[in-house]
Structure formats: structure tokens, C-alpha cells
């Protein structure tokens, strides 16, 4: 029996330096208590669903999924190197197109996680308004604690 504060941790990865920092924190939190970590990548299909006449989005979706597979493989390699029990999951299709935060929280609930670790890019001003914040949306919808890991701040 383990005395870990958290037993099942979901860490959102996207291949960025900020998600690498989040993975480092997930490893740190999981390590002492032998928790299991689920590295999660959600394909952002909301950006390609626009009205531009007929086009086949399949190659773009496949490229995004391939990028996700690479990010998950890298995360799995780091988790294994640290001796952390882990799984990976790629979500190709969100329940609501473009709702990455909703998909993260759905996986958290389905998997029975008790902590979410996610990086925040530190956008401010106009960039934050235009690009939004997946981390903020995850936090607002979460039913479990969320550990936000701050990346390098970016100016507007």
C-alpha cells in the first residue's frame, strides 16, 4: 500500500517546452509515492474546421495525430527513465470540436485521476485574448486539483 497523496496523475503534453516542464513536475509528484501517470495528448481539431469550401482535412488531422504520437513517445521515454508507472493516451476526436479542456477533463474523470498537471504558456494581453488558455479552461472545469506549471511569460 502506498501513502502517496496522489495515486493517478494526468499530465497534458503537447511537445512544447512548457509541457516538458509540466511532465517534470508530474514525475516529481509521482515519484515518492509510486503514483501512476497518464500522459495525455489531445489533437486540436478545432483549428481546421473552418468554412473554406471543400477540402479534405484528413492529411492535416493525421499530421496532428503523428505529432501527438511523437510527444507521447517522448513523454513515455522520460517517465520510464525515471521509473514512473505510466500510460499514454491520444485523443483524436473531442466530444465538442476544439474543446481540448473538455476532453482533458473527460479523460481525467473516465480514468479516475486525482490530479491534473498542465503547463501554462504565460500569454498576456491580446495574445491571451485571441489564443485563449487551455490551462485556464481545464482549471475552470476540473473536478480534481490542478497543478499549473508556468512556462516562460510572453508579452502581448
TrEMBL record:
Where does this protein reside within or beyond the cell?
Cytoplasm
Which SUPFAM superfamilies does this chain map to? Answer: Adenine nucleotide alpha hydrolases-like
Keywords annotated in UniProt:
Cytoplasm
CDD domains, per database record: USP-like
Q: What is this protein called?
A: Universal stress protein
| Domain UspA: from-to ranges | 6-150
Q: Which family does it belong to?
A: Belongs to the universal stress protein A family.
According to its UniProt entry, this protein's organism is Cupriavidus basilensis
Task: State one Pfam family annotation.
Answer: Usp
Q: What PANTHER family does the record point to? A: STRESS RESPONSE PROTEIN NHAX (PTHR46268), UNIVERSAL STRESS PROTEIN HP_0031 (PTHR46268:SF15)
Amino acid at each position: 500500500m502506498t501513502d502517496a497523496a496522489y495515486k493517478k496523475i494526468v499530465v497534458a503534453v503537447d511537445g512544447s517546452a512548457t509541457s516538458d516542464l509540466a511532465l517534470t513536475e508530474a514525475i516529481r509528484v509521482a515519484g515518492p509515492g509510486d503514483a501512476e501517470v497518464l500522459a495525455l495528448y489531445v489533437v486540436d481539431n478545432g483549428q481546421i474546421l473552418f468554412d473554406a469550401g471543400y477540402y479534405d482535412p484528413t492529411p492535416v488531422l493525421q499530421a496532428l495525430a503523428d505529432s501527438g504520437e511523437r510527444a507521447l513517445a517522448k513523454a513515455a521515454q522520460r517517465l520510464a527513465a525515471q521509473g514512473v508507472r505510466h500510460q499514454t493516451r491520444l485523443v483524436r476526436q473531442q466530444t465538442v470540436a476544439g474543446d481540448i479542456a473538455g476532453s482533458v477533463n473527460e479523460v481525467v474523470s473516465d480514468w479516475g485521476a486525482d490530479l491534473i498537471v498542465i503547463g501554462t504558456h504565460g500569454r498576456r494581453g491580446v495574445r491571451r485574448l485571441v489564443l485563449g488558455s487551455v490551462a485556464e479552461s481545464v482549471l475552470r472545469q476540473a473536478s480534481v486539483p490542478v497543478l499549473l506549471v508556468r512556462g516562460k511569460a510572453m508579452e502581448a
